[in-house]
Write a structure and sequence with these properties.
alpha+beta; two-stranded antiparallel sheet; 2 strands
Length: 110
């Protein structure tokens, strides 16, 4: 389980990509605040389509705010996001999150 995210389209600014990806993967309109972190991770593994990939991700993590939350809807049908949900903070510890998400959530609030 992870957080909304994805690639930057050609000519797209990173902050625009964040807003677009969150909408595509959750249906939420966000207001970006400050960047929180830059994470880099390299791995070789199987992609959702079954192909083995040598992958390097650079993640720009932002603080964001949803001013008018709605029921989550995945608009990017056929992408890597199966579902989206709101989760209470006290429920996070019991969820199987990606290692990088777990490390980020374990950090003290900034």
């Amino acid at each position: 389980m992870g957080l909304p995210g994805g690639g930057v389209e050609p000519g797209e600014e990173p902050d625009q990509a964040v807003v677009r990806e969150v909408w595509e993967e959750s249906g939420q309109h966000i207001r970006l605040e400050e960047p929180l972190d830059v994470l880099s991770q390299h791995w070789v593994g199987r992609a959702p389509d079954g192909l083995v990939e040598d992958f390097h991700a650079v993640r720009l993590v932002y603080r964001a705010w949803v001013e008018e939350p709605t029921d989550p809807v995945v608009h990017d049908v056929g992408g890597t996001t199966e579902s989206a949900a709101w989760v209470e903070e006290h429920e996070l510890a019991g969820l199987p999150v990606s290692p990088w998400v777990g490390a980020l959530l374990a950090e003290p609030a900034r």
